[in-house]
Design a protein that fits this description.
The protein contains 16 helices and no strands. By secondary structure, the chain is mainly alpha-helical.
């Protein structure tokens, strides 16, 4: 099951990045339109899952009749819409591989906001991983005349590396804050099912995406919404809508190590495709070294709390043996060791 989770995560994530990058190079379309349509598809999917058995009453009972609980999703839904729009601007100006590597800085921003908002503590190994992550991402962005001339500008003469870098860094920051805020909001309220929570998240996202679409300079009239929508662009829309749903369901069975391997593998796949098929990446020594450091930092971070968790589990197991040894008259009492480590 974990292998399936790994392969699905890599396939969905890598395919979307490559398809979105190619579409931004070959076609001129409104990214706000793609985000809006993807949010609509996402909502329809979760809405259908919610109302499949109980009909519209389920939507009213769990969303409309609970404005206080549903309002907790307003901020993360707005942030995710902004993040999605930024990623398309970034992919229009950066190679798929450069985007993929730099976007992993969301691990750093997530860790930062977890410490700030949730009061979590990080192990020394994870602090080391975050340091390596920043260093590796900086190497990938290090100016190189060869990569600059043969990279982004070969594939798209109008690309702006500084703009792309600013957008991907902003998207990574927003992703980190939105994820931690979402977790804090969920823990402070009731604990509904995954379907209900995603309906509460997707419903306001439609309106935020529509607001971005209305203010998009590329959409002057309603007919412009679908301007430049080739089959590949529609494929990107579907991938963005259902890709997030698939990954959200798959990662439930995956641990941190599997997620780390998935992110590392996605970088490898994106780099290979950028170099061989898109032709927007120059694999110089600086990029390769930076990518390897980022991959190593991801795996190190994913495994950062394993030792600590193992120690606690062993301690709990020893306590269980001690208790059982001193309570022979209670053979039907069972104790289960459980790690209290929360994912940072």
């Amino acid at each position: 099951m974990k292998l399936l989770a790994l392969l699905t995560h890599v396939a969905v994530n890598s395919t979307w990045v490559i398809a979105a990058r190619i579409s931004r190079i070959k076609f001129s379309y409104s990214s706000a339109s793609v985000v809006f349509l993807a949010e609509c598809l996402k909502f329809i999917t979760w809405f259908s899952a919610l109302t499949y058995k109980d009909g519209l009453k389920a939507f009213y009972d769990h969303v409309l009749s609970k404005p206080k609980e549903s309002s907790l999703m307003l901020i993360p839904s707005a942030l995710y819409v902004v993040q999605n729009n930024l990623t398309y601007v970034a992919l229009a100006n950066l190679s798929a591989a450069t985007y993929q590597v730099t976007y992993e800085l969301k691990i750093l921003t997530t860790a930062f906001f977890s410490v700030l908002l949730l009061g979590r503590t990080l192990t020394l190994k994870r602090w080391l991983a975050l340091t390596l992550l920043v260093f590796g991402a900086s190497l990938v962005q290090w100016p190189s005349s060869a990569s600059t001339q043969q990279g982004e500008h070969v594939a798209n003469a109008t690309s702006n590396r500084v703009l792309g870098l600013g957008c991907v860094l902003s998207a990574a920051s927003i992703s980190g804050f939105a994820g931690v805020y979402y977790e804090k909001a969920v823990k402070s309220g009731s604990q509904p099912s995954v379907v209900i929570r995603n309906v509460q998240l997707a419903f306001p996202s439609i309106f935020f995406a529509l607001l971005a679409l209305v203010n998009d300079e590329d959409v002057e009239r309603p007919s412009d919404i679908f301007k430049g929508f080739a089959p590949l662009v529609w494929f990107v829309v579907v991938l963005q809508a259902f890709g997030g749903i698939v990954v959200a369901l798959v990662v439930k069975v995956a641990d941190n190590i599997v997620k780390g391997f998935a992110s590392a593998a996605s970088i490898v796949v994106a780099s290979i495709c950028s170099f061989l098929f898109i032709g927007d990446l120059k694999l110089d020594s600086t990029f390769i070294l930076g990518a390897l450091i980022v991959i190593s930092s991801i795996l190190l971070y994913a495994n950062g709390d394993q030792t600590k968790a193992s120690v606690k589990n062993q301690k709990c197991q020893n306590d269980v043996k001690t208790i059982k040894g001193n309570n022979n008259e209670m053979p039907n009492v069972h104790f289960k060791a459980k790690s209290s480590i929360e994912e940072a």
